[in-house]
TrEMBL record:
This is Uncharacterized protein. It comes from the Bacteria.
Amino acid sequence: MEKIDKIILGSNSFEGVGYLSRAQTRHYIEFFSKKENIIPILEASFNLGIRSFMCSNNSNILSSLEDFKNSSDLSILAVIPNAYEYARESTEKGVLGAILSKAKKIDLYRKVRMGLQAIRKIQGIITKDLLTILTNLMDFEMASFHSYNVPGVILHGQVTDLALSSHNREIFDVYQEIIRERYKAQPILATHNFGILLPKLMEWNIKLPIVASFNKKGFIMKPTQEECERLLEKTDYYIIAKKVMAGGRLSPEEAFPYLSDKNIGSVVLGIGSLSEAYHTLSVAKSAFQNS
């Protein structure tokens, strides 16, 4: 496995995902709809030495990467599928309508760059099962990142947990095979159910890095904080911690000491403003410099 950086910039805020209130979510959606508000955070993170960026193919993020002068020096950890965007649009248009709507928003220049074959694949989704939908979406969404260095591809937690709840090992097998063989990247799984996923992966003899919530408040640590910590302590799986500030309920100074002695390989940090970027990432670098 290619080495993963200790500190990773996340993109939840850029995609309008907030955990404190609806007002925060609305603010993120409006504020980060303008790439002029995303690019300065990318620049600040880069200036602080952060070289990894975990993101989906959100149109505002892709537009920001195109205009960010150092994007070629970043390692992109692509999150697929773009579940948040599909979820928002599917409430009005249905799942298929949301997917087709996303394709229509892509300008002609980018469609040519992505390849028309990837665009056409989504036309046949309506009667497909989850596995077929996923494989079609993988080609469609990965085409968005073809200009960038993508050493890792993360299966969105909603898909991971859906496959987990249905005991569908085939999804994990096909996913990791496609990512390794077709895209020459490291497959990674995100989850909101670390304490359930890890034992199942061990049972299935599937060893992949896992992105999961770890924070001292136990926020989205399922089934319990204690069980997640017990499994974390003894595992040899590579763990990337998310929700480390409990969705904004902890300051960096409160959050990072909890992680410093844990069996965690990397942390992903979402940033909601330019000042937050300098503060949070500076504290993180200090906290994790020797780990």
